[in-house]
């Protein structure tokens, strides 16, 4: 699409693959963000460790008339991220927007989780943001660009789930994002994080389900101040705003997309 809010831009979505729909046709945030960026005119490099997932997102974009490239890389691996960024740059000539989407939860108290669980939380939730930023910032700084990091309301308050490694790693994502924001503010790069609340995505049913999909959905809806979970599209629309020039004077922000969950005590 030409003339959209990201027309002429290139976006890299790390963890942008489509693992398949969850119950009721729900999709992931990476898929929703990549397809939304493309609908608004961006050429999109979809980076995912799973080739089929990356291809599914790219297929959805090209079927709709957009331009996209599937890149297989483990976002926790320095060399693989550097290579993916180089390939995206070679294909599209510029990088304007980076959305870091990879994340994983690990349920259990501090006593329950293992050191491996803890390290996995930090590798997937935090290292992936560090490496994506490290390898794209020189290109973002070349023209003025936007980094959007996926964080969680769990980084600032309890969401009711016991996942200390996830909460701690997402808190670190927030401060990494703010560090980048202030360090690069004078070089035209903006960095913001989205604190997603209770969002209806396939990840929920894979990692947080306690019982049937219907019971999980009802439980999460009841925990949401609005009485309903958010959708991946709600998050993608916020990411589009933070990626586009409409937010050109906004940097270092931790934006809750959570139906008010961050306001509620307890
Ligand atoms: N769903 C929610 O309620 C919720 C709430 C708060 C925050 N979030 C955050 O939103 C983000 C996205 O969630 P989602 O539901 O779209 O997840 P998802 O599982 O649908 O998508 C994540 C993608 O990342 C890919 N991936 C995983 N590990 C990777 C690696 N090492 N290298 C490259 N790719 C890798 C997966 O293959 C998948 O395609 C996560 O960071 C999550 O913590 C989600």
SSE inventory with pairings:
Layout: E1 10-14, H1 29-39, E2 43-48, H2 51-63, E3 68-72, H3 78-92, E4 97-100, H4 115-143, E5 146-152, H5 164-184, E6 190-196, E7 199-200, H6 202-208, H7 213-223, E8 230-231, H8 232-243, E9 254-257
Parallel strand pairs: 1-2, 1-4, 2-3, 4-5, 5-6, 6-9, 7-8
The protein binds nicotinamide-adenine-dinucleotide.
The site of nicotinamide-adenine-dinucleotide has 26 residues, from helix 1, strand 5 and helix 6.
Commentary on this structure:
With 266 residues, the protein is α/β, with parallel strands linked by helices. Helices cover 45% and strands 16% of the residues. The strands form two sheets. Strands 3-2-1-4-5-6-9 form a seven-stranded parallel β-sheet, sandwiched between helices. Bound molecules: nicotinamide-adenine-dinucleotide (NAD). Nicotinamide-adenine-dinucleotide binds at residues 15, 17, 19, 28-30, 48-50, 53, 74-76, 101-103, 124, 150, 152, 196, 198-199, 201-204.
List keywords for this structure.
16% strand; 266 residues; 8 helices; binds nicotinamide-adenine-dinucleotide; 7-stranded parallel beta sheet; single chain; globular; Rossmann fold; two-stranded parallel sheet; alpha/beta
Percent of residues in beta strands? 15-25%
Sheet bearing the most strands, described?
Answer: 7 strands, parallel
Helix and strand run: EHEHEHEHEHEEHHEHE
Number of domains: 1
Widest sheet: strand ordering: 3-2-1-4-5-6-9
Helical fraction: 40-55%
Treating each run of at least 4 consecutive H or I residues as one helix, how many helices? 8
* CATH class division: Alpha Beta
Task: Please state the average pLDDT score.
Answer: 96
Q: Give the distinct bound molecules.
A: nicotinamide-adenine-dinucleotide
- CATH H-tier superfamily: NAD(P)-binding Rossmann-like Domain
């Amino acid at each position: 699409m030409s003339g959209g809010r990201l027309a002429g831009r290139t976006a890299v979505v790390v963890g942008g693959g489509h693992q398949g729909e969850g119950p009721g046709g729900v999709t992931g945030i990476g898929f929703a963000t990549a397809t939304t960026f493309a609908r608004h005119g961006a050429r999109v490099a979809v980076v995912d460790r799973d080739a089929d997932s990356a291809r599914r997102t790219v297929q959805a974009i090209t079927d709709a008339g957009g331009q996209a490239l599937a890149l297989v890389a483990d976002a926790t691996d320095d060399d693989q991220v550097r290579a993916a960024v180089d390939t995206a740059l070679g294909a599209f000539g510029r990088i304007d927007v980076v959305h870091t989407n990879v994340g994983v939860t690990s349920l259990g108290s501090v006593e329950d989780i293992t050191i491996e669980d803890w390290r996995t939380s930090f590798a997937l939730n935090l290292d992936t943001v560090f490496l994506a930023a490290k390898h794209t910032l020189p290109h973002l700084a070349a023209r003025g660009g936007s980094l959007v990091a996926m964080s969680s309301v769990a980084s600032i308050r309890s969401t009711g789930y016991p996942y200390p490694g996830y909460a701690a790693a997402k808190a670190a994502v927030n401060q990494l994002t703010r560090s980048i924001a202030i360090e690069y503010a004078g070089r035209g790069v903006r960095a913001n994080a989205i604190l997603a609340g209770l969002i209806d995505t396939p990840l929920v049913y894979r990692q947080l389900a306690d019982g049937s999909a219907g019971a999980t959905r009802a439980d999460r809806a009841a925990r949401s101040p609005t009485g309903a979970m958010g959708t991946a599209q709600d998050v993608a629309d916020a990411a589009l705003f933070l990626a586009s020039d409409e937010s050109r004077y906004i940097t270092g922000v931790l934006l809750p997309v959570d139906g008010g969950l961050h306001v509620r005590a307890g």
